[in-house]
């Protein structure tokens, strides 16, 4: 629950409600188009598609929306279902009730209060948002609904990026802009903050970073200075793990991991590396093929 910038509360639905939400996602929400700048939890898009457009830029500007799901109240969901989804009012009303929640005050009182003054203010804002019906973090429908609610935000930020000669993508609550030196100037970040406020969101200023090509440009855990790639430390660690599995046997590399899932864990990391950087991933996959998993 705790983290340096505050808290993250998950509201996982019970099995029957979760199945209903999954059906709503498949039969209702997936049919409504999202903005082209949205990449998080969108079929056919991924972390890599969100990061790749920023490769080779002179400056990358990273920003973060504070308390993303909690910032989407039930009223906006209801309006979305009536408007963009075109549902009748009674249906929209019923679905809104199925996909939003309120955090009980007794639960919120058990959340530790941060020590830092600014973190305490963010904590207060989060409590205010969670006290009214909102999108719960942990529901299958929340990412899709948030993307749809953000359609106008994405459209405005994409237009702002065009005005600065920049590229814009959003992955859930992570906003990324890239382009020439103008991207690193304070004015762009200020305008993004103004638009976010007008659209019902708030930028977490503590997470705003403008990164020049002279430094490592990291977008969603992917290095984009030249082309999308894993951070060198992560890539080297995976290569060393695979080498040790080949030369010493995979059982020597468990380090407390479950033997029943270790192979899937390693191959999953290799697949992720290949999805980010196919050339490097192919070399890692060839090394993984040499491991005797018996």
UniProtKB/TrEMBL annotation:
PROSITE patterns: RT_POL. Residues 1-224 form the Reverse transcriptase domain. SUPFAM superfamilies: DNA/RNA polymerases (SSF56672). The keyword Nucleotidyltransferase applies. Pfam families: RVT_1. It comes from the Bacteria. Its EC number is 2.7.7.49. GO terms for molecular function: RNA-directed DNA polymerase activity. InterPro entries: DNA/RNA_pol_sf, GrpII_Intron_Splice-Mob/Def, Reverse_transcriptase_msDNA, RT_dom. It catalyses: DNA(n) + a 2'-deoxyribonucleoside 5'-triphosphate = DNA(n+1) + diphosphate. Keywords: Antiviral defense, Magnesium, Metal-binding, Nucleotidyltransferase, RNA-directed DNA polymerase, Transferase. The keyword Transferase applies. Belongs to the bacterial reverse transcriptase family. This is RNA-directed DNA polymerase. It comes from Blastococcus carthaginiensis. The lineage of its organism: Bacteria, Bacillati, Actinomycetota, Actinomycetes, Geodermatophilales.
């Amino acid at each position: 629950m705790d983290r340096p910038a505050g808290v993250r509360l998950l509201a996982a639905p019970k099995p029957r409600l979760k199945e209903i939400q999954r059906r709503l996602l498949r039969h209702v929400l997936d049919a409504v188009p999202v903005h082209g700048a949205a990449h998080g939890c969108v079929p056919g898009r991924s972390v890599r598609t969100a990061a790749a457009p920023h490769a080779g830029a002179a400056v990358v500007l990273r920003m973060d929306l504070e308390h993303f799901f909690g910032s989407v109240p039930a009223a906006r969901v209801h309006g979305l279902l009536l408007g963009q989804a075109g549902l009748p009012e009674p249906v929209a009303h019923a679905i809104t009730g199925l996909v939003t929640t309120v955090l009980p005050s007794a639960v919120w009182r058990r959340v530790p209060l941060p020590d830092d003054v600014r973190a305490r203010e963010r904590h207060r804002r989060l409590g205010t948002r969670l006290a009214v019906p909102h999108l719960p973090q942990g529901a299958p429908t929340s990412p899709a609904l948030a993307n749809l609610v953000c359609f106008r935000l994405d459209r405005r930020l994409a237009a702002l990026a065009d005005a600065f000669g920049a590229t814009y993508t959003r992955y859930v609550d992570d906003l990324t802009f890239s382009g020439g030196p103008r991207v690193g100037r304070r004015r762009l970040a200020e305008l993004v903050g103004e638009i976010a406020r007008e659209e019902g969101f708030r930028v977490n200023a503590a997470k705003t970073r403008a990164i020049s090509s002279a430094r490592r440009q990291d977008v969603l855990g992917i290095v984009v200075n030249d082309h999308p790639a894993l951070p060198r430390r992560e890539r080297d660690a995976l290569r060393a793990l695979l080498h040790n599995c080949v030369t010493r046997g995979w059982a020597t590399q468990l380090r407390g991991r479950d033997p029943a899932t270790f192979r899937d864990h390693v191959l999953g990391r290799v697949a992720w590396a290949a999805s980010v950087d196919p050339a490097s991933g192919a070399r890692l996959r060839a090394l993984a093929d040499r491991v005797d998993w018996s």
